[in-house]
Write a structure and sequence with these properties.
Two copies of one chain form a homodimer. By secondary structure, chain A is α+β, with helices and mostly antiparallel strands. Helices cover 40% and strands 16% of the residues of chain A. In chain A, the strands form three sheets. In chain A, strands 2-3-4-11-5-6-7 form a seven-stranded mixed β-sheet. A three-stranded antiparallel β-sheet of chain A has the order 9-8-10, covered by helices on one side. In chain A, strand 8 and strand 9 form a beta hairpin. In chain A, helix 1 runs antiparallel to helix 2 and helix 6 packs across helix 7. The relative contact order of chain A is 0.17. The interface between A and B is large, with 84 and 84 residues.
Chain lengths: 374, 374
Amino acid sequence: MGYQHWKYETLNELCNDAFVKFGFTAEEAKIITDVLLMSDLYGIESHGMQRMYRYFKGIKSGKIHVDRKPEIVFETPVSAVVDGNGGMGQVISHFAMTKAIEKAKTAGIGIVTTRNSNHYGIAGYYAKLACNEGLIGISCTNTEAIMVPTFGKKAMLGTNPIAVAMPAEPYDFFFDAATTVVTRGKLEVYNKMGKPLPEGWALDKDGKPSTDAADVLGNINAHAGGGIMPLGGSTEKLGSHKGYGNAMICEIFSAILSLGTTSNATGGANAGGICHCFVAIDPKIFGDAEAIKQHLSDYLQTLRESPKAEGQDRIYTHGEKEVLAEKRIREEGIPVNDNTMREVKELCDHLGMDFSHYFGDYLPPENPGFKQVY
Amino acid sequence: MGYQHWKYETLNELCNDAFVKFGFTAEEAKIITDVLLMSDLYGIESHGMQRMYRYFKGIKSGKIHVDRKPEIVFETPVSAVVDGNGGMGQVISHFAMTKAIEKAKTAGIGIVTTRNSNHYGIAGYYAKLACNEGLIGISCTNTEAIMVPTFGKKAMLGTNPIAVAMPAEPYDFFFDAATTVVTRGKLEVYNKMGKPLPEGWALDKDGKPSTDAADVLGNINAHAGGGIMPLGGSTEKLGSHKGYGNAMICEIFSAILSLGTTSNATGGANAGGICHCFVAIDPKIFGDAEAIKQHLSDYLQTLRESPKAEGQDRIYTHGEKEVLAEKRIREEGIPVNDNTMREVKELCDHLGMDFSHYFGDYLPPENPGFKQVY
C-alpha cells in the first residue's frame, strides 16, 4: 500500500465538511478537525485522518451521540467534574480544558475530571491549549481496555496517555505518550501497512508475545484476551510495573475521581464511558513566570547540545520533532495511507459528499488482503 | 556476602541515635529514620539502611548542612516555593509536604516546589504522608544526573522518581518508581552483592550497554559518561523517549518551577542543589470522597482478580507488595547486607557509638573484593 500526500487545506475542508454533515455545529466540527489534523501535522499518523472511520463507526453505532452536550456536575474554585453525556470526545474535552484554563487564571490552578466521554484524539492537543495561554497544561485519559497488567493476560487498562506542555523557547516543551509501549493507533498503522509488529509490543490472547497486528486488534475488540504491554514490557525486570503504575495514575485522575467508567468496564452498556482529566497551572504561582520559562528553555538547549551516543547525531527534546514535522508536512502535504483513503471514500459516499471535490481524479486502489479492524 | 536480619526496633534506635549524634534534633532524627526504615520495611533495600553511609559522607563533605533549615520564599493559597538552604533532604521534604497538606485542607490542593535540598530518600514516604490524611499525595524529585537521554551518552537527568498515593481498602494505592529502568540504589545493591547487572539497565561511558555495576557507578561519580537507561531502554522502539519525558516532568515540577538546579548541574558548586515537588489534593474537590475511595478500591480488587498469564498466580496492585513485605519483615527482621553492616560499624566508630550495644557480638566480615562506590 502506498501513501498519497494531500494539502493540509484539502483535508481540513474535508474533515470540517464531514463533521458538519454528521450534525455537529461548525464550531464543533472545527475543534474535532483541529485535534485530528494537529496529529497529522505533528507526524503522528495513528491519531490523525486515519481515525476518521473509527469516529464514523462510533457515531453510526450510537456510541457517540452527536447532539449531547457536556455539563459541569460539581465545581469548586480549583476543580470541576464534567459529565460528557456520551457526546463527542473532542468537543467535551475542549469544553473541560477551557474550564481548567479559566480556573488557573483566577485560582492559579484548575483540575477538571471528565466522565461519559468518548475517544478524545491526541492527548497533547488539550495540554497545548493551556500552554498557548502561558500555562502548564496536562491532559490524560483512559481508553477502552488494551493494556495487560504485569503478570496478567487480559487487557484491564487503557493505553492511557499523559501529555504535558509548557511554554519554552524556541520550542514549547510538549510531551505526549501512551503508558503502553505503543498506542493502539500504531497497531492500526502496522495493520494498514501489512507489516509484522516489532517484538516487545503486544501479547496474544494467552498472554504470549505476538507480532500479528490484526490478530491482536481482533482479540482486543472481541475482549478475547491479550493486548499491548505496559511501557517497560511484560516482566518486572525492565519495569513493566512502572508503565502499569503510570496507567493507573491516568485511571485515578480520569475515571476514579469523576466516578466514571474504568477502562476495563468500557464498551457494551458503558459505550461512550471514556474518562479524561485536564489540568492547567499558572507558573506565576511559583514566582517569576518569565524566569521560569527561561530556565526551562536553557535546560532544553543544554540537553540538545549534550554528547551523542555512537551513531547518533541529534538529541531531541520533547516537542521538537513535532515542530520539525509540522514545518515539513505543511510544505510537502500530509501523507495518507491508501487504505485510509478507501475509508474516506466510503465515508464520503455515506454522507453524500463528492470525493472528487477534494481529491480530483484520485481513486484509492482495492486491497482485498487488508483486514479492517475497528 | 551474606545478610543478617535485625529487628526494626534495633535499627530504629541505631538510626535515631546516629542522626542525633550528627547534630539533628530528636524530631529531625525521627523523620530521617522513618524515611529510611519505611523503605527497608517495604522491602526496598536500596533506599533504606544501606544509604546511611552515603548520608554520613554527604554530611562530612559539607554537601548536607545539619544546621540549615528550610524556609518558604514564595507563597499563594495553593502553592509555595521552599528553599532548603542545603539542609537534610528528609527534613526539608517533610516540612514542604506538611505545607502542601495544609493548603490542600484549606484550598483543596497544594503544590510545593523545593530547591537547594539533598537526596530525600524514598519518594513514596511523602506521598504517603498526604494519603494518611485522606488526601491524594504526589511527590517527585530530581537527583544527581544518572539518566542518559535518548540518543545521548552522558547522564543529563536524574533517576527522577514519581510517587502517588491515594486512600483505598484494604491497601492504599501506593506507586513509587524511578523514571529510569532502575534506581541508582539498585546498582549499589548489585555492587554490594558482587553480581553483574541484568542487560538493559545501564550504559558505559561511551553509551554502550554495560553490566558492570562498579564501573557504571564510578563513571557516574566521575562524570565520565554513561549511566542508567530511561524506562523504555535506550532506543525509541520500546519507548526510551517516554521514560526520558517522564523524567523531564520531574525536572519541570522540581528544578524548573523552583528556579533550582537541574540534575545535570548538581554536584560541585551546586552540591546540595537537589529539587523536589510535593502535591496534596483533597478528593472532596471532586465530590463524595468516600464514594471515590470505594470506586478505587473496587477497581484495584478487579485488577487483582483478573486472569493471570501462564506461569503467574498473582497480579499485584501498587502498594500491595509493600504491605505484604512490611508484615513479613516486622516478624523476620530487616535483612541488612554484611557490606552495609561494615559501613555501619565505621559510622559508629566515627560517631563514638558502641556498635555492640545494638548488634551484640556480631562483627561484619572483611570483604577486600568489595569496591565501595559513593
